[in-house]
């Protein structure tokens, strides 16, 4: 059976050793600054992401700047069909259990709220994506403005196929605000554009600040190398 060495015996043993003989741990290296290339790559990717968001916002605003809406550019069309439309329809499904008004409103609400929820989460995490999500929320609101403007006319194609399923026609008729469709649409367009531009500016400032003051490599990261 192997016994343990009492602490007082162990301490007295090491105290008799010369400084050169005493055990010691290797000193930890202080954190080192990131290599310039490692700073440029993430900064470039962030600026590229903001460029794509800005392009989407521009194309959304250009399409919704007239009525009937102008033809959608390729990037915006792909984003509209692949992201905005599924979010909109998902909102209808999510709110279908909360009454007719919320069921109708849920599609438009959800397509704007999803990027805003992600924006709020990014703020809490102090993430660069704060600007990305804010700019996308603005683009989603700008896209919604064309649908609102169409309420009195019901000329835009709908997934259901029949104009009786037009969300904003049904909402504004129920609220007796059909004559205010243009004013509501203009507000959504202008406020969405402001949100989108603010998101781009926030993202650029965030990317520049992170480039000028990058995080340093930790000791564990240096040891892993």
Topology:
Blueprint: H1 7-15, H2 36-64, H3 74-94, H4 100-124, H5 129-149, H6 167-174, H7 181-212, H8 219-224
Give an account of the 3D structure:
It is a single chain. The protein has 225 residues and is an all-alpha fold. It has one domain (35-212). It contains eight helices and no strands. The protein has helices at 7-15, 36-64, 74-94, 100-124, 129-149, 167-174, 181-212, 219-224. Helix 2 (36-64) packs parallel to helix 5, helix 4 runs antiparallel to helix 5 and helix 4 crosses helix 6 (167-174). Mean pLDDT is 83; it is low at 218-225.
Helix and strand succession? HHHHHHHH
Give the CA-CA distance, first to last residue. Answer: 41 Å
Q: Compute the number of structural domains.
A: 1
User: What does the radius of gyration come to?
Assistant: 29 Å
Percentage beta strand: under 5%
Structural class label: mainly alpha
The main β sheet shows up as: none
Q: What overall form do the CA principal axes indicate?
A: elongated
Helix content: 55-70%
Question: Tally the helices: what do you get?
Answer: 8
Low confidence ranges: 218-225
Calculate the mean pLDDT score and round it.
Answer: 83
Indicate the multimeric state. Answer: single chain
Tell how many strands the DSSP assignment holds: 0
Key features of this structure:
67% helix; 225 residues; mainly alpha
């Amino acid at each position: 059976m192997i016994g343990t060495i009492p602490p007082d015996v162990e301490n007295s043993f090491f105290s008799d050793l010369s400084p050169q003989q005493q055990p010691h741990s290797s000193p930890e290296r202080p954190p080192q600054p990131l290599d310039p290339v490692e700073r440029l790559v993430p900064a470039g990717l962030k600026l590229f992401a903001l460029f794509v968001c800005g392009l989407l916002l521009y194309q959304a605003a250009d399409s919704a700047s007239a009525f009937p809406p102008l033809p959608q550019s390729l990037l915006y069309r792909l984003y509209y069909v692949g992201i905005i439309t599924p979010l909109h329809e998902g909102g209808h499904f999510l709110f279908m259990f909360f009454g007719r008004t919320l069921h109708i409103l849920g599609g438009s609400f959800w397509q704007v709220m999803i990027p805003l929820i992600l924006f709020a989460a990014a703020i809490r995490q102090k993430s660069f994506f704060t600007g990305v999500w804010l700019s996308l929320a603005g683009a989603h609101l700008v896209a919604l403005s064309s649908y609102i403007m169409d309420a009195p006319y019901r000329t835009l194609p709908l997934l259901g196929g029949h104009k009786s399923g037009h969300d904003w026609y049904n909402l504004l008729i129920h609220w007796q605000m059909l004559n205010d469709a243009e004013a509501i649409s203009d507000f959504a367009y202008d406020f969405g554009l402001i949100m989108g531009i603010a998101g781009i500016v926030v993202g650029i400032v965030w990317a520049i600040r992170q480039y000028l003051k990058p995080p340093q490599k930790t000791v564990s990261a240096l040891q892993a190398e």
